[in-house]
Amino acid sequence: MSVLQILLLLIIAVRVNSDGETFGDCTDDDDCPQNATCVEVDAWKRECECEENFSPYDSPVAVEGVAMVLCTPVVCFPSDENPCSRKGECVVEFGRYVCRCYEGYYGETCETSTTTPKMTETTTRRGGYGGLLAAAGAGLFAVVLLGAGAAALTSSSG
Which residues pair with residue 49 across a beta bridge? Predict the structure, then answer.
């Protein structure tokens, strides 16, 4: 092999490794999880690599004692200029980056605001004679009941 060919192979090998994190041995794409492909790491080794906008996640599920690796969507990176729509912060949760939204926002990237109706209580009195008329009506009703009761007592004792 010439020096130029060796240099070209090194460049290709470095380029493949720098595209993304590889994991798990494979012989073809069927050996990799969904959203991943089998790539050549070097002349003797092939591993799975998540597709663009997906990152490897070691799930809590183990198969034959080995943690199952899934390729999950990349929601945010802390180094992003505008992570989580500036309405939350990008944090690591269960081994992957997710947006933790500030109060009043929700969604995968905190893109939706919540609107909570606020109950208010008034302390002003009702104006006019409405309150006075209701009190007078209740008093008149009580007088009528008392009068009817007194009349019934007088006629029965009589």
Answer: 22, 37
At 62-94, the pLDDT tens digits run 888 877 888 988 888 878 887 888 899 998 887
C-beta neighbour count of 31 within 10 angstroms: 14
1 within domain boundaries: yes
| CA 54/CA 73 separation, integer angstroms | 4
Identify the CATH number of the domain in which residue 91 sits: 2.10.25.10
Write out the residue range of the structural domain in which residue 35 sits. Answer: 1-73
Same-domain check for residues 60 and 80? no
Residue with tokens 């980056």: 97
Element (H, E) at 29: none
| Residue 157 counted as domain residue | no
Give the chain's residues under pLDDT 70: 1-19, 116-158
